[in-house]
Amino acid sequence: MSVVGRGTNNVGVLCGIGAYLTWGLFPAFFGLLAPAGAVEILAHRVLWTLLLMLSLLAVMGKLGTLRGLDRRTWALVAAASAAIAVNWGTYIYGVTSGRVVETALGYFVNPLVSVLFAVLFFRERLHRAQIAALLLAATAVVVITVDYGRPPVIALTLALSFALYGVIKKIVPLDPRTSLTGEGVVAVPFAVGYLLFLAATGTGTFVGHGPGHALLLVSAGLVTAVPLLLFGAAAQRVPLATLGMLQYLTPSLQMAWGVLVLHEAMPASRWIGFSLIWVALVVYSTEALIRARRAGRSAVAAGDEVDENAGSQRS
After folding, report:
1. Is the pLDDT of residue 292 over 90?
2. Is residue 315 a part of any domain in this protein?
C-alpha cells in the first residue's frame, strides 16, 4: 500500500472510531435532556438536524438536488424517514426510561437482522456460519425474553427498524447527505407541528428551563449530524469489513454506560443471553473477515493476471 493509501486508510479508521464512539456516548447526551420527553426530544432532533443539513448542502451547492427528485425517490426517502424516526424515537425512549442495556442489545442484534433482511429482500444466500449466527441470536432472544418476562421490545424494534432503514438506503439513488436531508424534509412538518402543540398547551420544555436546556435541545442536530458525516467519510476510505468490526464499539459503550454508570440490573440469565449474542457476532464477523480477505486476494490475483497479459502483448 502506498503512503497516500495508508494515510487515507488511517484517516478513515479515525473517522469510523469517532462516529462509533459518538454514537456510543448517546446515552450520556440524551440523559441530559430531562425533563423533555422522548417525543419532544425526537421532534427537536429532526428539526435541528434538518436545518444543519440544509446549511451544509447550501454550502456545498447541492440544494438543487432535492428539487429534482422524482416520485419514486421521494417515496423511498419517506419510507427511510419513517424507519429512522421509529429507530430514533425508540432509542430515546429506551435511554430516558432507564433501559440503556436493552438499547445496546438492539444494536448488537442489528447486524444479524441485516443478514436476514439481505436474504428476504435481496435473495442473498446464507452461508453456514451466518445460519449458525442467526440460530444463536434467536436462542439469545428467547433466553433474554425469559429473563425479562417479556420480549425485549425496545431491542427488537431498534434492530428491525435500523435494518429496514439500511435496506431502503441501499436502494435510494442519493448520496447520504442528500438522503438524510430529504428524510428531514419529510419528517419536519410532524416535528414542528408537535413542538407547536407543546408550546400552545404549555407542556413543552424548550422555554422555561433555562438557556442551557434550550441549547442542549438545539445541539441534538449537531450531535446527530456529526457522527453520520464521520461515518460517511469512513465508508469512503476503509473496507466494510473494518467498519463491521468498529460498529461493536457503539453497543459496547452503551452497555457499559447502562451497567457501570446507571447500575441497571444484569442477572446471570441476562449475561447468558448477551454471551450468546457475542458468540453469534464472533461467528458472523469471523466469516465476514475470511470472505473479505479471499475477495481481496482474488482481486489482486486478477490484477496481476491482467498485468501479465498486457506485458505479454507488448512484448
Report:
1. no
2. no
